[in-house]
Amino acid sequence: MRRNDRKKEKAMMNEKEMIQEIERLKKEKNAIILAHNYQIPEIQDIADIVGDSLKLSQEAAKTDADIIVFSGVHFMAESAKILSPDKKVLLPVYDAGCPMADMIDADQLRAFKKEYPEIPVVCYVNSSAEVKAESDICCTSANAVKIVKNMKADKVLFVPDQNLGHYIGKQVPEKEVISWEGFCITHHRVRTSEVENVRKQHPEAKLLIHPECSPNVVEMADFVGSTSEIINYAKTSECKTFVIGTEMGVMHKLRNENPDKKFYLLSPGLTCFNMKKTSLPDIYKALLHEQHEITVDEEIRQRALGCLERMLELS
Q1: Which tens digit of pLDDT belongs to each residue from 52-68?
Q2: How far does Cα 88 stand from its chain's mean position?
Q3: How far is 178 from 154, CA to CA, in rounded Å?
């Protein structure tokens, strides 16, 4: 069969056939597919591991896979490369980025540090490798409060999410948290009026909200937590109805794992378009051509790794 004919044949594959090809290529190339909780259902269903960004990278580092296909956004694939330097890390859609992570770069962070000298920097995992390299310690939305609480300093600089920074400050009032004015455009757009409306529509429901939402919205929650904490809360709670205040992709796992419970999305605005860029054909092409490889300068990788390792030690 000629090369052009093979291309046409692949173009005509249906979803089932494409999934079979993806599985074949995974075995052939000793690859693993990671999918963030916010990815589309079809991607979550074919992934070897589904979860939060850092957890995915940590789990991938434990495997003997030669190739990591990271279905997420750029900073997540970078984190995988930081933890697995000897593995080939592929981002199926190379321009799938994180607007919040892009709200601060290394130069801006250095200027921020000069403005507040001698104050340690805590950087959210939703940041570039360069920003991690310039920071003292990393955190996730799940361990951010614990990290800051366990630090010896009475003041910290927090980048890049002002909303998570504000939440940390409320939970650890004995310390001053000075936040960079970045935010997640998806979570930040939720309004208190939407919370009020959904309370009227579902008064029996528990409202579970991510701390990347604005402070006024977070204060109205029954439970505040990371994506994984929201999933765990819904799974273990005796309540049968929930309103979910984080990106809509998580609804797929919630409904699959809790068929006897009802889930409603807090706001139609809770859609991250970067997270929705990746499709099955993108996974297939990434594996077939081993394209869109993520690389990190070794000096930056080592410094960013130290930032992550200090987090693991303190948490």
Answers
A1: 988 898 998 999 999 99
A2: 20
A3: 11
